[in-house]
């Protein structure tokens, strides 16, 4: 039984350790130059300590729940501070800490010339803490605290360079789209409060309700907002205005998976609801295809990787739609490794080329940045599901399961097309950024010789290659994967990926020496993100404002209250009085004649008999 | 007719003459208008009280109300003229330019 105590102690130590650098804000440590290194070391120690409870969990297979502090009891509902350490949180915590450790070390190199680097690290750490609160929450209130926390930190970090208008707009956009999702979350919370009288996950999963459509739609809306599914997706590519470490941490591995994580947490409710599963499946399929189409013609390297993230998120939602939450979770964990590494390699390229983000102005970096090139290629291969790299263990399983399950054929087709497009845009990145002759300016600022950069990418490189294997073979088996299927179904993912690679390579090589004519309609559709931001961000507010101006201001105020009676009466009177009167204004004469007439008439008529 | 009535009637006639014959300021005719209203009020009140016409006791008040309205109207006309010309001389209102 001592084993159990060590579990709770060590996990609480891990979580508490993360808050220590925040508590040092008012001391001299925060102002010194060692603060970033201090934060990085804290997170690496937290990672190593968190491995203890994870391995204990994998050995024993026992969920733990800690309920510390009773906060409030509102009539019949009790809210307390409670942590849930089950399969999902225990595997996610070390993965997230490992990735964050590497990103912190990368940030030391990337942001070293920033005067507010200490504040940057504090914000990143605050984000990590709120993400930990989110994944370890046992009741919906605590989850909501973490949910809002990651939203706020995302706002602060996207708008890090707040002097830039685009960054402010992007941060505001992120908040607005997340808010729309939060409405769904609150709807689910309200339903649980009124119908099940609780916000605790244990009690929610225990009660048997027939019609759970309303809270599940609310949760799906929340996931749509946070994980940038179709309809609430434009904030994710705009969020690339933030620094690259922010993109690597928030908008690839950690924050955007919060929506998927929420759906995974509530999977016992979704198991028996076929309607919601179909809706989830179709939403995920639309997202993954749409964002993959948009990624094909982008010219900014970070935007391509952002759309790649969005596409993989759509794939995770598809996995939830076919009722495989554990596979979706596995994909979350493996995706974190190679996506963070892809962002870090992009950051290395960007800094080396003196802040150049356009892939049309890169090229020929194959020999100049060998380590970055290697990790970029490995990351892209892992992303597309190259056999036995990390992505293979989750992505291939997902495609296989989708192929052999009784599901929506259209959604399946969309997912397969999106998979081949993944290969296509990965080829595009590699072709434009790495191969060929250099297209950047000849002043050489290329340098990847910094140990912080190399070590951080090296760690994630090992993760991208081995983590899939390590995680898959050490976790407790949950759902049984489909073992037998026809060979064409088994090879389906590989075939479409290779097809995507070959097509993209051929097209890129063929088009290299051709002149760029006017873009076709399809190109414009893809490049302008399907015209979605243009329409939604401009047309709808303009319609609302125009309607408001016309009905309230013009119609009511100006016309009905001013013009109809008061102004029209005065106008009419003045015009008619000018038209009718023909006097000359000789007032004294008129008065005199009046008096004279009166007197004369009095005198004359008084002598009447 | 008793002395009171002749007195008040004479006051009314005097104000009336003042209204019709004045030199330059429009304000003086407005003042005489007020004098007319005052004398009418007194005559009406004395008549009603002397002859105990109880049901007509309201009429002096009503007369006052209408007098106030008309005074306001007269003053607004004065203000309009004063806005245009700066003074209220009656010569200004002469549209003939000779």
TrEMBL record, chain A:
EC number: 7.1.1.2
Catalytic activity: a ubiquinone + NADH + 5 H(+)(in) = a ubiquinol + NAD(+) + 4 H(+)(out)
Membrane topology type: Multi-pass membrane protein
Pfam families associated with the record: NADH5_C, Proton_antipo_M, Proton_antipo_N
Chain ranges of the NADH-Ubiquinone oxidoreductase (complex I) chain 5 N-terminal domain: 71-121
TM region positions: 6-31, 43-61, 87-108, 120-137, 143-163, 175-194, 214-236, 248-266, 278-297, 304-322, 328-353, 365-389, 409-436, 457-476, 488-509, 589-607
Cellular component terms per the entry's GO annotation: mitochondrial inner membrane
Keywords from the UniProt entry: Electron transport, Membrane, Mitochondrion, Mitochondrion inner membrane, NAD, Respiratory chain, Translocase, Transmembrane, Transmembrane helix, Transport, Ubiquinone
Domain NADH dehydrogenase subunit 5 C-terminal: start-end pairs: 425-604
Domain NADH:quinone oxidoreductase/Mrp antiporter transmembrane: 137-421
Keyword Hydrolase: no
A biological-process GO annotation: ATP synthesis coupled electron transport
Any one Gene Ontology molecular-function term assigned to this protein's record: NADH dehydrogenase (ubiquinone) activity
Keyword set includes Electron transport: yes
Compartmental location: Mitochondrion inner membrane
Function: Core subunit of the mitochondrial membrane respiratory chain NADH dehydrogenase (Complex I) which catalyzes electron transfer from NADH through the respiratory chain, using ubiquinone as an electron acceptor. Essential for the catalytic activity and assembly of complex I.
Entries under PANTHER family matching the protein: NADH-UBIQUINONE OXIDOREDUCTASE CHAIN 5
Family to which the UniProt record says this protein belongs: Belongs to the complex I subunit 5 family.
Name of this protein: NADH-ubiquinone oxidoreductase chain 5
Organism from which the protein derives: Martes martes x zibellina
UniProtKB/TrEMBL annotation, chain B:
Transmembrane segments: 6-22, 29-49, 61-81
Subcellular location(s) of the protein: Mitochondrion inner membrane
GO molecular function: NADH dehydrogenase (ubiquinone) activity; oxidoreductase activity, acting on NAD(P)H
Main location class: mitochondrion
Top EC class of this enzyme: translocase
A Gene Ontology term for the protein's cellular component: respiratory chain complex I
Keyword Transmembrane included in the entry's annotation: yes
EC number of the protein: 7.1.1.2
Membrane topology: Multi-pass membrane protein
Catalytic reaction(s) noted: a ubiquinone + NADH + 5 H(+)(in) = a ubiquinol + NAD(+) + 4 H(+)(out)
This protein's record includes keyword S-adenosyl-L-methionine: no
GO biological process assignments: ATP synthesis coupled electron transport
Keywords: Electron transport, Membrane, Mitochondrion, Mitochondrion inner membrane, NAD, Respiratory chain, Translocase, Transmembrane, Transmembrane helix, Transport, Ubiquinone
Described purpose of this protein according to its UniProt entry: Core subunit of the mitochondrial membrane respiratory chain NADH dehydrogenase (Complex I) which catalyzes electron transfer from NADH through the respiratory chain, using ubiquinone as an electron acceptor. Part of the enzyme membrane arm which is embedded in the lipid bilayer and involved in proton translocation.
Protein family according to the UniProt entry: Belongs to the complex I subunit 4L family.
Oligomeric form and interacting partners: Core subunit of respiratory chain NADH dehydrogenase (Complex I) which is composed of 45 different subunits.
The protein's name: NADH-ubiquinone oxidoreductase chain 4L
Originating organism: Martes martes x zibellina
């Amino acid at each position: 039984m001592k084993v159990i105590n060590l579990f709770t102690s060590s996990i609480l130590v891990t979580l508490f350790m993360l808050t220590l650098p925040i508590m040092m804000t008012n001391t001299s440590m925060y102002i010194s130059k060692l603060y970033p290194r201090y934060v990085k070391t804290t997170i690496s120690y937290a990672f190593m300590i968190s491995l203890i409870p994870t391995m204990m969990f994998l050995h024993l297979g026992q969920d733990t729940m800690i309920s510390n502090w009773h906060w409030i009891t509102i009539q019949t509902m009790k809210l307390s501070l409670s942590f849930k350490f089950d399969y999902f949180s225990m595997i996610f915590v070390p993965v997230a800490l490992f990735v964050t450790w590497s990103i912190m070390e990368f940030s030391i190199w990337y942001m070293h010339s920033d005067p507010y680097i200490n504040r940057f690290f504090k914000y990143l750490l605050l984000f990590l803490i709120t993400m930990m609160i989110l994944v370890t929450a046992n009741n919906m209130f605590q989850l909501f605290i973490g949910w809002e926390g990651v939203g706020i930190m995302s706002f602060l970090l996207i708008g890090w360079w707040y002097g830039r208008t685009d960054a402010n707009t992007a941060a505001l956009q992120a908040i607005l789209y997340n808010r729309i999702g939060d409405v769904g979350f609150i709807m689910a919370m309200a339903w649980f409060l009124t119908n099940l009288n609780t916000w605790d996950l244990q009690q929610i999963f225990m009660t048997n309700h027939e019609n759970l459509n309303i809270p599940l739609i609310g949760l799906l809306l929340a996931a749509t907002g946070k994980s940038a599914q179709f309809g609430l997706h434009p904030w994710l590519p705009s969020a690339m205005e933030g620094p690259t470490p922010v993109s690597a941490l928030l908008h690839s591995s950690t924050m955007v998976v919060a929506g998927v994580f929420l759906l995974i947490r509530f999977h016992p409710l979704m198991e028996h609801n076929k309607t919601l599963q179909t809706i989830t499946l179709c939403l995920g399929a639309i997202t993954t295809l749409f964002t993959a189409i948009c990624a094909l013609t982008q010219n900014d390297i970070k935007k391509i990787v952002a759309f790649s993230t969005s596409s993989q998120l759509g794939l995770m939602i598809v996995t939830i739609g076919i009722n495989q939450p554990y596979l979706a979770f596995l994909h979350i964990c493996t995706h974190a490794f190679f996506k963070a590494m892809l962002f870090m390699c992009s950051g290395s390229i960007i800094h080396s080329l003196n802040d150049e983000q356009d892939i049309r102005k890169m090229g020929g970096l194959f020999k100049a940045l060998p380590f970055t090139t290697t990790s970029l290629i490995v990351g892209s291969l892992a992303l597309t599901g190259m056999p036995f790299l990390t992505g293979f263990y989750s992505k291939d399983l997902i495609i296989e399961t989708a192929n052999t399950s009784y599901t929506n054929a259209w959604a399946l087709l969309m997912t397969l097309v999106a998979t081949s497009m993944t290969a296509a845009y990965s080829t595009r990145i590699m072709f434009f950024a790495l191969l060929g002759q250099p297209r950047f300016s000849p002043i050489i600022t290329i340098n990847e010789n910094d140990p912080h950069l190399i070590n951080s990418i090296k760690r994630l490189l090992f993760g991208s290659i081995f983590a899939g294997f390590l995680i898959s073979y050490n976790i407790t088996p949950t759902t049984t994967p489909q073992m037998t299927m026809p060979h064409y179904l088994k090879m389906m993912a590989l075939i479409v990926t290779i097809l995507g690679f070959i097509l993209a390579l051929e097209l890129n090589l063929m088009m290299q020496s051709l002149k760029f004519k006017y873009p076709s309609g399809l190109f414009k559709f893809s490049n302008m993100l399907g015209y979605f931001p243009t329409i939604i961000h401009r047309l709808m507010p303009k319609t609302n404002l125009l309607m408001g101006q016309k009905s309230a201001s013009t119609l009511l105020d100006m016309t009905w209250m001013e013009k109809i009676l008061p102004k029209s009466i005065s106008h009419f009177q003045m015009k008619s009085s000018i038209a009718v009167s023909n006097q000359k204004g000789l007032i004294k004469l008129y008065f005199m004649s009046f008096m004279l007439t009166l007197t004369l008439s009095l005198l004359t008529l008084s002598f009447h008999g | 007719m008793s002395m009171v009535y002749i007195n008040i009637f004479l006051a009314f006639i005097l104000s009336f003459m003042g209204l019709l014959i004045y030199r330059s300021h429009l304000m003086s005719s407005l003042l005489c208008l007020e004098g007319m209203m005052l004398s009418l009020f007194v005559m009406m009140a004395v008549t009603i009280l002397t002859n105990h016409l109880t049901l007509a006791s309201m009429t002096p008040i009503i007369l006052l109300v209408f007098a106030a309205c008309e005074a306001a109207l007269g003053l607004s006309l004065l203000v309009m003229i004063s806005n245009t010309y700066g003074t209220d001389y009656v010569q200004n209102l002469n549209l003939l330019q000779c």
